Amino acid sequence: MNSQNTRLGSWEQLKLPNVEPRTIGLIVLGVIVLVLLWSSFFTVEPEEVGLVLTFGKYGHQVEPGLRFKLPYPIQTVIKVPIQRQLKQEFGFRTQRAGVRTSYDADSFDDEALMLTGDLNVGVVEWITQYRVGDAYKFVFKLRNLEETFRDMNEAVMRTVVGDRSVSEVLTVGRQEIASEVERRLQELCDQYETGIRVEQIVLQDVNPPDEVKPSFNEVNQAQQERERMINEARAQFNRVIPKARGEADQTIQEAEGYAVDRVNRAKGDAALFRSVLAAYRRAPDVTRRRIYLETMQEVLPQAERKVFLDDSLEGVLPLLSLNKEVKP
After folding, report:
1. Which domains does the chain possess?
2. pLDDT at 283
3. Residue 91 in this model has a pLDDT that exceeds 50
4. Quick one: average pLDDT of 287-309?
5. How many degrees, rounded to 5, is the angle at CA 245 between CA 240 and CA 248?
6. What is the residue-wise DSSP string for 240-300?
7. Sign of the CA dihedral 38, 41, 46, 50?
8. Burial label, 134 (beta-carbon count in 10 A; 0-12, 13-18, 19+)
9. Nearest-CA neighbor of 183 among 156, 219, 149?
10. In angstroms, how far is the first alpha carbon of the chain from the final one?
């Protein structure tokens, strides 16, 4: 009994003081006013715009900064990042970013496997980078926008890949494919009024399926070997043919120069002969003697031994050394 009395006494001591109902109502009203004021102010970040809804119906758009609206639930705000670059990945998902990024592509073969125009199969992994161009259309014009946009990406990529051969898809046609997909996807986004502005299509990785990779690599090696041999043959051609053409042109020019020289010499000799003939006709004796002296002047210096005989000389044999050489 004593313990029970002690407890009752403690409870009586902890009784709250008497508070008037009017005071409690004022406190509750103040809390409600503070909550309403707190929900009436909101901040739009620099890369965003705010869409203000009045009882769930779109009212107007507000720019970045500190803004005011009617309290909830009269008006609500949807913030849309229009300056931020967004992306969607197809055929893989980025699991860890930073120094090294790992990819898990085994679960997304249904996105990456595509049939090419020559009935081959390729594994195409790509990234679509885009921004929100129209916030109102992005939020209100299309239901399930993310899924619809992914379906549009796959449809356009499969269409473009299906119009090309597997060699184009895997090698030389990648840039052309990316540009064509970007153009067609933007046209489709404008047609469906998604409010999306496609900025870039990046083909992350394009490979044949794992089952045929060894054979495909052998084909690529053979093609590279063929290109290497063609390039070597062209290099050899560029070394030999210009040199042969230069030598041929040199020979032709030398022959032409020799022909011109021979013709000019012949013309000069003919002109000299005609001048000598004219002089001979004017003075035969003088010309004959002059020709004789000029000829002797050219011939005699070339003779090693010279013997001059008088026309009236007799017994010339003792003067000649027939058994030994006589020094000049």
Report:
1. 10-80 (no CATH), 86-208 (3.30.479.30)
2. 82
3. yes
4. 79
5. 125
6. HHHHHHHHHHHHHHHHHHHHHHHHHHHHHHHHHHHHHHHHHHH-HHHHHHHHHHHHHHHHG
7. positive
8. middle
9. 156
10. 175
Q: 161: how many CB neighbours lie within 10 A of its CB?
A: 23
Residue 99 to residue 119: CA distance in whole angstroms: 39
Both structure tokens of 148 = 């619809």
> CA of 8: how far to CAs of 14, 17, 102, 140, in Å?
10, 17, 68, 64
What token pair was written down for 197? 């502005």
Give 291's pLDDT tier (boundaries 50, 70, 90).
confident
Cβ contact 157:188 at 8 Å? no
Measured CA to CA, the distance from residue 204 to residue 149 in angstroms comes to 19
- The angle at the Cα of 320, spanning 316 to 325, to the nearest 5 degrees, equals 170
**Which DSSP string corresponds to 56-108?**
TEEEEEE-SEEEE-PPTTTEEEEEEESSS-EEEEES--EEE-SSS-EE--GGG
| Residue 178: both structure tokens together | 């990316």
pTM of the model: 0.58
Q: How high is the pLDDT of residue 86?
A: 93
Question: Do 117 and 177 form a contact (C-beta atoms < 8 A)?
Answer: no
